[in-house]
Amino acid sequence: MLKKYSILFLLTHIIVNGIFAQDVIADNMLLFQRDNGGWPKHYLNKKINYTTIFSEAEKATIKDEENRNDATIDNDATTKEIRYLLNIYKKLGTQKYFKAAEKGIDYLLTAQYKNGGWPQFYPDLSSYRHLITYNDNAMVNALNILQDIVEHKNDFDIVNSKYTEKATLAVQRGIDCILKTQLKVNQVLTGWCQQYDEFTLEPADARKFELASIASSETVGIVYFLMRFKTPNENIKTSIKQAVAWLQKVKIDGFEYKDIVAPTLPKGKDRVLISNKNESVWARFYDIKTGKPIFAGRDAQKHFQLAEIEHERRIGYGWYGTWPKKLLDKDFIKWEKEVN
Question: Which of 73, 116, 171, 293 could serve as 283's disulfide partner, Cβ 3.0–4.6 Å?
C-alpha cells in the first residue's frame, strides 16, 4: 500500500479513522489566511513554507495576525492557496478548505479596481503597492482563477453558482483594463509594462530597479490569458497579434544568459550574455521610447548595458530570459490556426 503514495503525500496528510481527512499544507494555509480572505507571501521575512510543522505557540502567534493588511497577489500568493484548497477539498471533502477557498475568491473580487485592474496588495495600498500590477503575472493569476470559475474548470466547477456572474463581470473589466494598458509606440501596439497608475493607466515605476518599460515576461503571461478565449473579438485578436509581433521584433539572437566564474567578485560569479549562435534571449525590460533593453540598480538610474549596474543587482534579478520562446515557436501558431 505504501508504494501507492508519494513520500510528500504521506508527509503532508494526517490519517483519521483510516481516512485522509486533513492536510497539513491546507491547514497551514487556513492558519495564514487573513480575515479579509487573502494571504500574505512572507512569514518572518521569508517565503511561507506550508509544509512546516508549527508548534502550538507558533500557531497562536500566526493566528493573532489574521487581521493584518498584508494580503497580496504577488508571488502567486492568494491564488495558489485558492487553487490548492479547492483541489484538496475535492479529494478529502473537508468543508473548511472549501469555505476558505471561497473566502479567497471573495477577496479577489473585492480587491479589483473598478477599471478592471488589481493592486499588488490589498488593502495595504502604500508605496507602489497600489499600482495595477502585471508583474510576475499577479493580475493574470487572479484573472485565470475567475475565468476558471466562468468556465467551470480546473476544480472551480464546485464553487457556488453565485460566483459565475461576478467572475464574468470581473473578467470583462480585466480584459478592458488589459486592452487599455497595452503600450502603443509610434501608433503601433507593443507589450505591457509591469505596473500602471490606477487612475491614469500610465506606465509606472515600482521597485527602484523596476522602471516603467515594456516587459517581455509579463507580456507573455497576458497574451496567454487572452488566448484562452475560444471566440475572441477583433480587439483581443489585434492585441495578441501585435504583442507577438513586438516579441518577435525584440528577440536577441545569438546569445544565452548564464552565470560565469568571476573569482574577484562576491560569491565568485557574475551573470552575463554569452555568444551562442544556437540560442536567443529577450531582455526583461525594454525602453518605451527607444525599444532598447534597459537595466537599473538600486539607485533607480536607467542604463543600457547590464555591466553598468551594481553586481548585487546583476546576479540578483533575471534581466534576460527565454519567456516568449514556447509562445512564439508553438502556441501562438496553434492559436492563430484555430481562431482564423
Answer: 293
